Amino acid sequence: MLNERQWIQATLQGDKEAFTNIVEKHQGAVFNLAYRLLLNAVEAEDAAQESFVRAYTHLSTYDPAQSFITWLLSITAHYCIDVLRRSRRAVTVELDESRQLCDGEADPERYAVARERDRAIRQALDLLSPHYRPIVVLRYWYDMSCKEIGKIVGLSEGAVKVRLHRAREMLAQSVRQQGDTAESRPDEGFNGLKETEGNALFKS
Amino acid sequence: MRCSRAREMMSLSLDEEVPPEDTRKLQEHIDECVQCLHHRERIHHISALFGSAPLVKPTDGLVEAVMRRVATAEILSAARGHSTVSLVAAGLLVLCVLGMGNLFVVVSAYGFAQSGTVVEFLSDLIGIVWKLISVVTLLGGIGWEVVWHAKGIAVSQQIVFPLMVCVSLMLTALWAHIIWNYRGVNVSQER
Ligand SMILES: [Zn+2]
User: Taking CB atoms and an 8 Å limit, are B62 and A31 in contact across chains?
Assistant: First the structure.
């Protein structure tokens, strides 16, 4: 079994089979990023494919001193940001298979909860413009430091922190409004959601 | 501490280590300010919502689809490599060949070749082929462009189309020129 470094080396020498291993290993991370950024399962599939093709054709520019997954995710992020900027209003399309959302065999109840949560997340991320969404997704789903995120989106560490703060303000604001419309008391919707996960918060 | 500063610090504390002194000041503010307390709860809720979601998975065929596209990308990049170097050479070669055809057409149209000889037959034949080639080159150039355009490659990125258009326009003009000039000569000679 070869490691990632060897797969990259073999791919550069023309061994396509080696690149298959790279795609298999990272497809989850790449697809998830594309889906969270585009909020559209169909477009995300295409964006994930495009990311890997770009990684393949530009593999010689990858600096082995850096993390490969960070390099790969930055290709995906750039591609998706471009797509978001080009299309004025994104149409959200949910995932259509239960195994895309849940690990292993999912019973209907667990799937229903996962779907509801996914819908709430899409609705929340939909509030954020292309300036904010990639930063939030990279921070929460990939646990990247502000410095790493800054490298990917071309901002200083400080600017990333400012955007994260603003994004959280926007999200908190919407939680508040959702609570206002759902209940007479501002924070009841929010508190209720805390107990029953993904229940009332982002319901439209 | 002002509310705006407190909220900034709340966000910061999620991304980096905040000095204990600041944490204490923040807590003091939250103890007194119910709006900021609620704000913190909402932010924590968002974190919980995002943090609870596992990575979603792609459909089964992603790896195969990527490898198919990788193969196509290789063919396209190979073709693009060709277009800059060898297609210029090919274009020049085509020009030379058609230049020869041009010569035969002049012979044919002028009536230089003796009637009933092999030279006359060849001149007429090559003359017709040459005319056909100029039409085919033009149509082929347009067809080629349509295909490449469908694959998302801009006209400026390739050399084939402009080259083909130039060649075919030049030859068509030459052909029209010859017909115009020498058709009449032939007729007057026969009189
Ligand atoms: Zn306050």
Answer: yes
